[in-house]
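FIELD: query
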Amino acid sequence: MADEPFEMHEPLYRYRHRVIYGDTDSGGVVYYANYLRYFEAARTEFMRERAFSYKEIEQQGFILPVVECHVRYKASAKYDDLLLIETCLLEVKSRTCRFNYRIIRENDGKMLVRGYTTHAVVDINGRLTKFPAMVLGALREHSLDVP
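FIELD: result
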């Protein structure tokens, strides 16, 4: 199976995270669901730096829930590992966007995890809607599918 769904492109956002003990299971490795939390932390900072913070988007009456996610595990992270989570915005459509991720262990450069999340734009009542024009424009500046 090819890694095409996980393609990465510039501009990449790079976020560092040190694995805390509470992120690990009884075997001392990162519990599998925590990688989605790492994706979220990196995506949140990507948005804050390159477009609008989630708080600013919510203040406009919109939220961006995850409607699809995929994670491919290649190797395990362990307690105290320093991780580099790379994030890119693969595509932005009028009602959705998709982020791709790659998690690398910094001390040896080993790629541990690849994945993506797709987000829909919904209003405060949970109805699918379109991105506000300013948000859409800011996101498209950083996506691969620039119109």
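FIELD: remark
DSSP finds three helices and seven strands in the chain.
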